[in-house]
Design goal:
Layout (H helix, E strand, L loop, with lengths): L1 H25 L14 H6 L10 E5 L1 H9 L1 H5 L3 E5 L5 H11 L7 E4 L3 H5 L7 H17 L3 E6 L15 H17 L3 E4 L24 H19 L4
Parallel strand pairs: 1-2, 1-3, 3-4, 4-5
Helix pairs in contact: 5-7, 7-8
Length: about 240
């Protein structure tokens, strides 16, 4: 009897250990989630595939896009628009998220807004050439998957409130020129957020921003107008 009880307990422990090991293999550890792949994981899983004739558009960027859906949620709820902005992200993080947050969602088009946080030095200095390399990689991935590419000329910024030692205005102008030249060369759609928001200092108009970096609702309303035109252009009017 004692041997029987011992063997039963041993078998039970083995089963528990196996179950724990199996469970641990199924759970993902996001403790080193540098690109915030976990942020939209559940939302992406719950998102149904686009229906026939649906022209889904993914907005990929950082805080400018993430705060947009907070300032004007109706803009996204009334359209087949998917906001995948993550505050503070630099261009290589957007590239790392591109499969999960863009390709796998099967959009008709993607809007890519990248560069400001790189210039701000939030996570280390990245040159405009480096930013362009990441933008190019994302654009090439989109084209490979038959996703229309819309590249944004970045919003004007005179200075960052959290790091006033950086002078971003001319760097953004130079980056925008590079983005525009690349888009024209590859027949990608250009979405110009810079021109309608810029003031005489090459920063954002005071009436359209909360901090010189992020738009207020009035600024987002202007962005919505130019965004609609760019989407129509990219999709050939098939919204």
């Amino acid at each position: 009897m004692k041997n029987y009880l011992f063997l039963a307990l041993l078998a039970l422990c083995s089963c528990n250990n196996f179950a724990q090991q199996a469970d641990s293999k199924q759970k993902e550890d996001f403790s080193d989630d540098w690109a915030a792949l976990s942020k939209y994981k559940k939302e992406n899983a719950a998102l149904p595939a686009p229906v026939k004739g649906e022209n889904r558009v993914v907005f990929l960027g950082s805080s400018i896009f993430e705060f947009w859906k907070e300032k004007d949620p109706k803009y996204f709820s009334n359209q087949s628009y998917i906001d995948r902005g993550v505050s503070g992200q630099i261009s290589p993080q957007l590239l790392l998220r591109f499969r999960q947050d863009v390709i796998n969602l099967k959009p008709a088009a993607v809007i890519i807004l990248a560069g400001s946080n790189d210039i701000a030095g939030n996570k280390g200095h990245v040159t405009n050439e480096g930013i362009m390399d990441h933008i190019k990689s994302m654009s090439e991935l989109a084209r490979l998957h038959n996703i229309k590419v819309i590249l944004c000329k970045y919003l004007p910024i005179y200075e960052y409130p959290w790091n006033k030692s950086i002078k971003p205005a001319e760097k953004i102008v130079d980056l925008n020129n590079m983005i525009e030249a690349y888009a024209k060369k590859n027949n990608f759609t250009i979405l110009d957020y810079w021109t309608p928001l810029v003031d005489q200092r090459k920063g954002q108009k005071a009436a359209l921003t909360v901090d010189g970096v992020h738009p207020n609702l009035a600024g987002y309303k202007i962005m919505e107008e130019v965004t609609e035109k760019a989407i129509d252009q990219a999709l050939g009017g098939k919204k």
